[in-house]
Amino acid sequence: MEVIRSERAGFCMGVALALKKLDMLVEKGGHVGTFGPIIHNPFVLEEYAQKGVRCFGSVQAVKEALEPFYVFSETIDEEKKKEGQLQLNLLIRAHGIPSSTESFLRNLPHICLMDATCPRVKEAQNAIREATQGENETRTLLLFGDANHPEVDGLVSYAKGKYIISPDPEKLISHAKNKAQEQVVLAAQTTQDRAVFESIKKELCASLSIKPIILETICDATKLRQDEAAAIAETVEVMVVVGGKESGNTKRLAELVFSKNIPTVLVESADELEREFFKSFKKVGLTAGASTPKRLVDEAEKLLTSW
Q: Which active-site residues does the annotation give?
């Protein structure tokens, strides 16, 4: 079977930077952890867990992990303290975290907090903070994104006023029209569909008497990855998308390809591919989410090519 592989499949810049920072901490040694999964890929997370990296899901979990440090700090010698044995090197996940959570963690004893937030996500956080703070009052943020996604939780924490989160364009547009006398700020989760965002922007600019503030927060790499996947889908009989099933950008990539009326398979690894399903196809497209290691894409390509 012929395989047409996306050139953009695999780690994006933000993921690569985050993992590079984590690798440096692991190499340095000592107690290493991440606040939330560093990225959304189970294989990557398992590899770091085997290296001793702990993944903390809450502030309470971090506080409990620090309790032995408080006890030993009274008895351990100064040399051991200098070696960092009573310090947790904690890395903020690539998706970012809420601003209040970051402030709290920075003030905890025995923690060295480092930031691995994707630069594009950090730019979006700062842009939201600045745009929602008006001269005399705050502005409502309309965020095109998935509620309860970790990136979104972080983004809205920077809003100075009220915020509305929805992946449904009509809900955001309806809210803005009901508040027509207020200026709103429109932004998006960095991995959302740019075409849909553009349609929201166009409708708001055409229908609101007070011009909305538009923040261009969707990552260019996301659009290019989606465009390439859509183009490949036009030339093949079936598409395979490799990536974590908890990854928002991977799921949207699969949804986009499926919308082209082509059979689409989303798998986390080549082991999930079933030969029987592909026996009637001669040409398959292959792409992957932004948090998918190259080796997983290589393995999928090798298996598909052998059929």
A: 151
Which strand (E) or helix (H) includes residue 165? strand 163-166
Residues 6+ apart with CB under 8 A from 286: 3, 4, 5, 6, 9, 239, 240, 242, 297, 300, 301, 304
What is the per-residue pLDDT across 28-75, written as a single tens digit (0 to 9) for each?
988 999 999 999 999 999 999 999 999 999 999 999 998 887 655 555
Calpha distance 225→58 (Å, rounded): 32
pLDDT for 234-291, tens place per residue? Answer: 999 999 999 998 888 899 899 999 999 999 999 999 999 999 999 999 999 999 999 9
- In angstroms, the CA 267 to CA 30 distance is 35
Q: At what angle do helices 220-233 and 248-258 cross, to 10 degrees?
A: 30
φ, ψ of residue 264 to 5 degrees: the values are: -135, 135
Show the CA angle centred on residue 243, arms to residues 240 and 244, nearest 5°. Answer: 140
Do 53 and 32 meet the contact criterion of CB atoms below 8 Å apart?
yes
State the distance between the two ends of the chain, measured CA to CA, in whole angstroms. Answer: 6
Residue 50's identity, in one-letter code, is Q
Q: Rounded to whole angstroms, what are the CA distances from 140 to 109, 192, 204, 212, 257?
A: 36, 20, 14, 10, 33
Backbone angles phi, psi at 302, to 5 degrees: -60, -45
